[in-house]
Amino acid sequence: MSIEDRILQVLSDVRPYLQIDKGDVVFVRYEAATGIVELRFTGTCKDCAMLPMTMRAGIERALRAAIPEVKRIESVK
C-alpha cells in the first residue's frame, strides 16, 4: 500500500469527527522529500478557530502514528 493510500485511510478514520461539525478535509498531496502532507479543510473547518489544534493534536498525530514517513501537515487553500 502506498503512502498516499495510507494517508487516505487515516483521513477516512478521522473524517467522521470533522463531519459531525459540518467540516471535512481533502488530501492534496504528499511530498516524500520533506514528509509534508498538504490538506485542504472545507466546510466549517476552514474558518474554525480550533483548526490549528485539530490539525496538530488530531490529524497530524493520527497520521504520524500510523505513517512514520509523515513529519508534518500543512493546510493549503
Describe it:
43% of the residues lie in helices and 27% in strands. With 77 residues, the chain is an alpha+beta fold. It has one domain: 2-Layer Sandwich (GMP Synthetase, Chain A, domain 3).
Helices and strands in order:
Elements (H helix, E strand, L loop, with lengths): L2 H17 L3 E9 L4 E8 L7 H16 L5 E4 L2
Parallel strand pairs: 2-3
Antiparallel strand pairs: 1-2
Helix pairs in contact: 1-2
Pick out its properties.
single chain, 77 residues, alpha+beta, GMP Synthetase, Chain A, domain 3, 43% helix, 27% strand, globular
- SS strand fraction: 25-35%
Count of all domains: 1
Let me know the CATH homologous superfamily.
Answer: Fe-S cluster assembly (FSCA)
Q: What is the helix content?
A: 40-55%
Order of helices and strands: HEEHE
Q: What is the CATH architecture assignment?
A: 2-Layer Sandwich
* Main β-sheet description: 3 strands, mixed
**Pairing-aware structural class of the strands and helices?**
alpha+beta
- How many strands appear in the DSSP assignment? 3
What does this entry show, briefly?
With 77 residues, this protein is of the alpha+beta class. Helix content is 43%, strand content 27%.
